[in-house]
Description:
The chain is of the alpha/beta class.
Amino acid sequence: xxxxxxxxxxxxxxxxxxxxxxxxxxxxxxxxxxxxxxxxxxxxxxxxxxxxxxxxxxxxxxxxxxxxxxxxxxxxxxxxxxxxxxxxxxxxxxxxxxxxxxxxxxxxxxxxxxxxxxxxxxxxxxxxxxxxxxxxxxxxxxxxxxxxxxxxxxxxxxxxxxxxxxxxxxxxxxxxxxxxxxxxxxxxxxxxxxxxxxxxxxxxxxxxxxxxxxxxxxxxxxxxxxxxxxxxxxxxxxxxxxxxxxxxxxxxxxxxxxxxxxxxxxxxxxxxxxxxxxxxxxxxxxxxxxxxxxxxxxxxxxxxxxxxxxxxxxxxxxxxxxxxxxxxxxxxxxxxxxxxxxxxxxxxxxxxxxxxxxxxxxxxxxxxxxxxxxxxxxxxxxxxxxxxxxxxxxxxxxxxxxxxxxxxxxxxxxxxxxxxxxxxxxxxxxxxxxxxxxxxxxxxxxxxxxxxxxxxxxxxxxxxxxxxxxxxxxxxxxxxxxxxxxxxxxxxxxxxxxxxxxxxxxxxxxxxxxxxxxxxxxxxxxxxxxxxxxxxxxxxxxxxxxxxxxxxxxxxxxxxxxxxx
Length: 565
């Protein structure tokens, strides 16, 4: 995968079959989102099983994100839509008190939230259906709240109700969320998203519960309330990831504030090394159209340029007519935007006190300077790859682990390609050879490629191996793999010399410059922007044919034929 930022796609009626999920994975989906606000546990279990099967069929693991509903305030079920007209007075209250107010029979809006009347106050704004309709609270009348319609419309069942600037007493983690979390744990999901987070303590409550259950599933805090924006630094200290949920955020704080908040939150998350997701209405028009608007394409690109780790599709992939096309389009937009990469953090601004963090950054820099093909970061928990992701490495990174669970966790790490290997022995030296052999077998490297190998955490750290970086030059790739990898590469160079001939196979030359260093006659030279090794035709006649350069070449690219023998 050349794209660095990751794509989350919400799964729903348009995309829940194994066949469709396979197409989404091939189109570029990294993580599948299950929205617990809709559907049943039975239905979600089948969807998750389909995701796992599709991943297996395609041969590419994707993560599963269980998005908890949170204290969503909604209109209860209606026999038919209510027509709200500007200037009319209505009342809103819990459904079970409706019979107590026959005088409001034709002007009663039922809600599932029992504390709405208690939380609201005179003058409060009441927004329906993502702000499409608006009312002002007049006064409380026993168990109901009198409101006046400011902007009307047709109000349907289950539409959302927002109370901006009202201190909603409902906890971020509801009883329904607890049930859904236990379901998600049984299904072995890879991430939980906590909705309507307002403060760090709400995230800690869920983390304490997971700790008690001896689970380590990452928590994504959805930032959509103004209180969360104010408390973002404290929330970032306790959460694993952040999601900028722009839908409810726009309703709560006003759409004109969302771009500034988005840019600020992404910047803060980048500084602290917390993965951040930009979500909601990114390609909204593709719900019904096969192409997005130019404004939507710009929206996705700007999120990438701001520094987001992942972007998310909601209704476009869950209920839209073009789910596969939406993922492909997002993949194309992200890949194109990444051609103008965001400036990465300066080393002096990074916390490198951690041994693992400093080693991952060092490995990234070594790979860049030596023009390595891959950085191979061997990890047991994924933490070392998270630290490397924060540095925004320019060389592609394989996050290698022997845990499928950790592999799926890394599906949301910027620039990390999760890679699974089966560890046969615990000996570190053997492990490195196993990794190189696996890369060769899967055609991920060619003879002469350089690979930087570093070890991160878990038992590797206990063995004292995490503070080491190794630069390996690949040798002896199997013939078929080698033929494929050599397509488009340079031809063999030959130079006649007195009593012999020098041959340099540039297709396998690693440009390690060992020959340059060992030759006292300047027969070898370094040319071009890529520092490629070449024969110096002006000094080649000085060759003494002592074979030192041949012996020092790690890839067998050099051959010297002595015709005097």
